[in-house]
Structure formats: C-alpha cells, structure tokens
Amino acid sequence: MPTCQRSLRTKSLNPHRGLSESGPGNKHSKTSLTIDGITYVVDTDSQKMKSYDPRTGMQSLLVTPISKASATQRLGQAGRTGPGKCYHLYTAHTYHNELEENTQPEIQRTDLASVVLILKSMGIEDVRSFDFMDPPADEGLCQALELLFALNALNKKGELTKLGRRMAEFPLDPMLSKTIVASEKYRCTEEILSIAAMLSVGNSIFYLPKDKKTSRQALEEIKLKFIHLEFDHGGEVQIL
Asked: Which of 11, 22, 74, 118 could form a disulfide with 29 if both were Cys (CB 3.0 to 4.6 A apart)?
C-alpha cells in the first residue's frame, strides 16, 4: 500500500512522554515484507547484529542500538494494510542524539575473507584499491589476505592458487571450504560435509518446546549426550 494511502496513526516522539506509537523490532521489521494482520509494533531500540573484530579475528552476534533509518523502517510495519500503531520504547532525546543516521554496512563489520576470495577468483588482484560502494577498513582486508595465505589459497605474490580456486567454488567460509577440499585426501568427505552443514546452522538444530514441559536444563542434558570425547566435532556427526 502506498505511503499516502496508509492509515497509520502515530504520535510524534515526545521527550516528556518518552513513548511514541510504533511496532516490533523482530526480524520481519527489518525487511520490506508485508504481513497481514500486523496492527501493533513495539520498537525496543535494539537489534542483534553480526560483528567481526579484525584485531581478535572473532565474529560475534551483538545486541546494538538501531539507527534512525531502522526506526523509520520499523514504524512502517504497522498500518501497511490497515490502521496500526507503533510504540517506540525510548525517548526523543535518545532518538535525536544517540542513534546513528544509518546502519553500518555489513561489509564494514564482518569477516572479509570470503569477499576477498571471490574478488581474487574474478581476476581482481588489487582488492585494496577495489571500488567498494562502502569501503571496508584496511585492517580487515589485510587480515583477510593473511588468512587466505595461511590457508594456501594465495601464494606469496597474493595470487590465487589452484587450491584457492577450488575453495572459491564453495559458498562457505574459506576455512570450511579448505576443510572440504582437504577431506578428499583423507577420504572423509561425507563426514566433513555433515560437520560443515552443522557448523553453518549453529544451535538452531536444537528446539526448546514452548509448552515448558521441557526445561532449558533438560535441553542442555540432551546436548551432553552428543558430546564426542575423541574429537571436537564428533557430536555433529552423531546427531546426523
């Protein structure tokens, strides 16, 4: 429904009230997906965002404040197909003084090893001079190049090796790609594919019923049954 035709009723942010009418900050509120029946949206001023620290080489899922652009997008989830309200659970001062204008581009906050590997496979050798729409930090690019060199995907000149070309064929993290390619030598490809698939989905394979008959502690006890004492990822193989 066009914006001009929406019957969204919302009150402007009021620093004295500290609350405005708006909608839910879940995964659907971050997209342009229209869901029938959405009448109320509660914006909590937070989001889970994948973030990569090039200094530690660790990637984690952090709870961070949203941007003003995200707040506007969440507002639009209510009243798309009918009257609706959105409640912002933060003050006008927070909105105007603490929220960034736009969300930081994903390429500037994630591991760049896969990006660099793809660029190299396309024949783009000087990735640091590549015209990115949102240029990532040099530190992240350098660490990605170092990782690919350590995996033997690049030679000393920074050129893609035969192994690197095979790794680039997999839409996976380079370390998982290297593991799959190497599994052929050790004749354990089937097991490695299972482990790679499990590592890609994380803990989402475990489901905690909403009936509350199964406690979180009981779920953890079930997970312990799959722990393999001989190698780290034996549990993933046992589950499958």
From this structure: 74
Please say whether the beta carbons of 104 and 66 come within 8 A. Answer: no
- Class of CATH domain 3-104: alpha beta
CA 223 – CA 215 distance, rounded (Å) = 13
Give domain limits for the chain.
3-104, 110-172, 188-240
Residue range 7-32: average pLDDT?
Answer: 41
Q: How confident is the model at residue 163, as a pLDDT?
A: 97
Chain centroid, CA 63 distance in Å: 12
Chain-centre distance for alpha carbon 174: 17
Of the candidates 167, 170, 173, 171, the residue with the CA atom closest to the CA atom of residue 154:
167
Alpha helices in the chain (DSSP H): 68-75, 92-97, 113-121, 138-150, 162-168, 174-186, 189-201, 216-224, 234-239
Task: Report the predicted TM-score, pTM, of the whole model to 2 decimal places.
Answer: 0.63
* pLDDT band for position 131 (cuts 50, 70, 90): very high
* Cβ-contact 170, 176 below 8 angstroms: yes
Per-residue pLDDT, 11: 40
Residue with tokens 């990006």: 115
